[in-house]
Amino acid sequence: MRLFVRFEYETTEREVGDLFQPHGVGEVLICRHKHSGESKGFGFVEVERPDEAIADLHNKMHRNRPLHVEIAQDRSRDPRRRAAAQEREIA
Questions:
Q1: Among 11, 33, 59, 90, which is least packed by CB within 10 angstroms?
Q2: Are 30 and 14 in contact (CB under 8 A)?
Q3: pTM, rounded to two decimals
């Protein structure tokens, strides 16, 4: 299952993977600014045991900032996102 994770901006994919390793980590994706490539301070993690991961890591301090961990929302059906995608296709 995919989790949404908010973390300190300097956190690397490897660190996120290490944090979630006990919960069956899969893919780790850190969202980055399009032009600068710098982290936006959040990302997504695929895990096998999401309930355990949330219970273990939500609000845990990492790099002097609490982690925020929750089930990722499926935003593909959000009408605002669809409209923006259609505008990009037209342009």
A1: 90
A2: no
A3: 0.81
As a whole number of angstroms, the distance between CA 44 and CA 27 comes to 8
Q: Residue 16 to residues 12, 28, 36, 78: CA-CA distances in angstroms?
A: 6, 7, 21, 27
Q: CA 20, 21, 22, 27 torsion: positive or negative?
A: positive
Domains contained in the chain, CATH given: 2-90 (3.30.70.330)
Residues 23/47, Cβ–Cβ less than 8 Å: yes
Instruction: Express each pLDDT in 1-58 by its tens digit.
Output: 999 999 999 999 999 999 999 999 999 999 999 999 999 999 999 999 999 999 999 9
